[in-house]
């Protein structure tokens, strides 16, 4: 009979049968402790003189009429008989044939070692040889059989040697039980335990186990690393000492509720970290129950969610600032619109004096410029954020830019009756930059100073060379900047005084534009203030560049030129009519169209030299109108100018590809419009 490398305690076959009769098939735990073998009811060990014939007798007589063999056959147990010296199989019942996949005739041509897995064979031979030499009367083992079809089956073997009257082993008999299912279950359990152990070791989170009543029973190195609490201090309910005092009662109530109701536990709370601060953690735990529904233990994990909490707070703050911005935007839009509405009403009165009519016109022009600047700032922020602004850099003397900015910001400063002092110095201050964008930077600084300085205040603008940089400073006697706001004053939508009188407020984007544009020029901007009511000073620093060989020649402004035939295409009839009146006043012949198809028809009939083309048209958009006009007009000189509210980079690209010669974004100064018509 064969055996594996893990022999069990020896005993007689009859004695082993007696163990089974008292308890039936053993539990998995008992089987692991012994041999996982079930045996038939207890019978007395057969008398060797009665069971075994004299030496040389026929082997078939060994079991004939034997009570033991009959009982095992009826129990459906796999039985086999072997020859001690050679391990040759002498007899096998049906169950053993089914286990191995061989017929009895095929088995009688083999030894037990032929069936044994090669890795188990050496130890199996050693164990069998001990029984064959009379050194071991019974044995137990577990090993692998290789079936005829190649499948590997685990078996538990309980074997015994039968001796003759001289004490010589003449036969071996054995019970063989298929334990493949048990082995697979043990392997699955081992792998599961290995996965769990690896998961615990690999995760950076804290894994813990408690007793059924919720008391921590295992130490957690990760908890110690996170909290600094010694492992033994967290046992029981000791871990609560690391929970923030404000969260402790709520956390314990949730844990107690989960224990009482045997439900999933989840709670967020703060724990004291090893450095003395507090971090947010998410605790989750589930009960592990047995087949009877009783809780065996609780397994839980704590996940550090501090960064998530900070991100959530940042999102809430950004949402709050967005809401404040939208409210301020609504106010900033309504103010000029309201002023324009009243001024328009005054100008329409038949009895109003000419002087008041002129005043109304100036109000509408001023408020319209304010709206245009606001929209431009919003678009600039969007472009800068997405990296869409392209600077047109050239060597420029910064003094000229400063003087232009002072002239542009003058009306805002004068309206608040401020006194502006400008000290630029002799210069020149050559920098490599975009003159329009640098003028925008200085205008924003000046208007910001005017906005946050009470009426009749003072503003100083100075510029000078400081090493390899040009420093521009704008100082005021305004309401100042709180110390806690200084690090955030250049953030988008941030305002030092959000509760300020809305008439002096703003969108909170002006200084953001200043910072981004200055940084795009390789410079830096900073803010300083001695506190509220003490004024503030903003400083821009730009790197100097070498003086160019020749000063830049300024192009002379083009005049209006000759009268042209102009087709205005716009679905906004008020806008089209107003533009038509302006062009006719300038001496041009004008025709109108309000959609794509009529634009094509009017162009065929009117033969325009210039077309001012809106993009967002009904029926046929401006891009398609431009393409068809180019196809129809062929080589004839025709200037197409896109005049639209769409001003993104992609909009300009599409209009250019459609055949437009220029792209203007509404609103457009009438001087610029007339220059475009002149070509």
From TrEMBL:
PANTHER family with a match to the protein in the record:
OSMOSENSING HISTIDINE PROTEIN KINASE SLN1, TWO-COMPONENT HISTIDINE PROTEIN KINASE
Q: Which residues carry this modification: 4-aspartylphosphate?
A: 614
- Answer yes or no on keyword Kinase: yes
* Gene3D superfamilies tied to this protein: 1.10.287.130, 3.40.50.2300, Histidine kinase-like ATPase, C-terminal domain (3.30.565.10), PAS domain (3.30.450.20)
Record SMART domains:
HATPase_c (SM00387), HisKA (SM00388), PAC (SM00086), PAS (SM00091), REC (SM00448)
Q: Where is this region: Disordered?
A: 1-58
What CDD domains does the annotation carry?
HATPase, HisKA, PAS, REC_2_DhkD-like
Q: Which gene encodes it?
A: pleD
The superkingdom of the source organism is Bacteria
Its EC number(s): 2.7.13.3
Residue ranges constituting the Response regulatory domain according to the UniProt record: 565-679
Keyword list (alphabetical) reads:
Kinase, Oxidoreductase, Phosphoprotein, Transferase
- Name of protein: histidine kinase
Q: Is Transferase tagged as a keyword? A: yes
